[in-house]
Amino acid sequence: MQAIRVHQTGGPEVLVPEDVPVPEPEAGQVRVRVQAAGLNFIDTYQRSGAYNLPLPQTLGLEGAGVVEALGPGVDGVVEGDWVAWAMQLGSYAEQVVVPAGSVVGVPEGVDARTAAAVMLQGMTAHYLTHSTVPLEEGMTVLVTAAAGGAGRLLVQAAKRRGARVIGTVSTDEKEALARAAGVDEIVRYRDVDLAEAVRSLTDGGGVDVVYDSVGRDTFAASLDSLRPRGHLVLYGQASGPVPPVDPQVLNAKGSLYLTRPTLGHYIARPGELAWRAGDLFSWIAAGELDVRIDRTWPLAEAAEAHRYIEAGETKGKVLLLP
């Protein structure tokens, strides 16, 4: 089978298509023929060496496809089932082996590409709005990169919880996409002082929560956009890692909360994976969640897909298609 392998860290050019043996599932595992694999910014961190992984490695943390083989001791999954998964390496491949406990069934009314598109970013939007800071009616939040794949899903999840959403974008096209997702107010963060704009939109009070996926370039403004005792949820670093922070800054700016969550810790408890994925699939099947697939690439062109997302051009989800 074909897989995209990384033998040394570096730029997109280190993503190499190779023929590799078809993996055999061991006890408690299933082998899935991949129909679509999702790209995420964390993939670029792993490829570049910003996040250390043992090499050689096949990247890709999410996807969807059909079960082709079962390892010993697998219950609740059968050959022919359509499933999706997240936080499992190896998805940039024609076939992947995944722990049976880490797959969820894809119901009728949800196609494989859509399922692959929401597993990591969609469940991230779910845990950020339902668990990291459980949003309530009347709260106001700021979402950076509101037109991106994660941003548009986060906007919709926040609106479902009754929040008022301010979103940052950089172009007219992205503003239209963010507004279609339900953003109440738009800030062109490259053209204005972000914190001042947010203060103006909140009568000087600041927002209850900032969901920041940009990192270094917006971190300071995100802190300054919060009300006293507000929450800064840093869930990405598209512009680079945030420099070290003196915790005393949180006191001085209003007894603020700062957290750096990751999906793996929010699907670790029994039932959490099924809950989050189940909610997403039910919203999709009911036509209540707009999942925008921005671009697709053949599996062999993974390097081009990485260049695209690192250029900040994404306006929805990017997928690789074996």
Task: Describe the structure concisely for a colleague.
With 322 residues, the protein is of the alpha/beta class. Helices cover 30% and strands 27% of the residues.
Description:
This protein has two domains: 2-119 and 264-321, Quinone Oxidoreductase, Chain A, domain 1 (Alpha-Beta Complex), CATH 3.90.180.10; 137-260, Rossmann fold (3-Layer(aba) Sandwich). Helices cover 30% and strands 27% of the residues. The chain is built from ten helices and 16 strands. Helix 2 (112-132) crosses helix 3 (149-160) and helix 2 packs across helix 9.
Low-pLDDT ranges: none
| Tally of DSSP helical segments | 10
| Overall outline | globular
Structural class: alpha/beta
Cα-atom radius of gyration: 20 Å
Annotated CATH topology of the largest domain = Quinone Oxidoreductase, Chain A, domain 1
Percent range of helical residues: 25-40%
Q: What letter string, H or E per element, gives the SSE order?
A: EEEHEEEEEHEHEHEHEHEHEHHEHE
CATH class label of the largest domain? Alpha Beta
The name of the CATH superfamily of the largest domain reads Medium-chain alcohol dehydrogenases, catalytic domain
First CA to last CA: what distance? 10 Å
Number of structurally distinct domains: 2
Described by strand count, sense and barrel closure, the largest sheet is:
7 strands, mixed
- What share of the residues does DSSP label as strand, in percent? 25-35%
- Strands, total number: 16
Mean pLDDT: 96
CATH architecture annotation of the largest domain: Alpha-Beta Complex
Question: What features would you highlight for this structure?
Answer:
alpha/beta; 16 strands; 322 residues; 30% helix; 7-stranded mixed sheet; 10 helices; Quinone Oxidoreductase, Chain A, domain 1
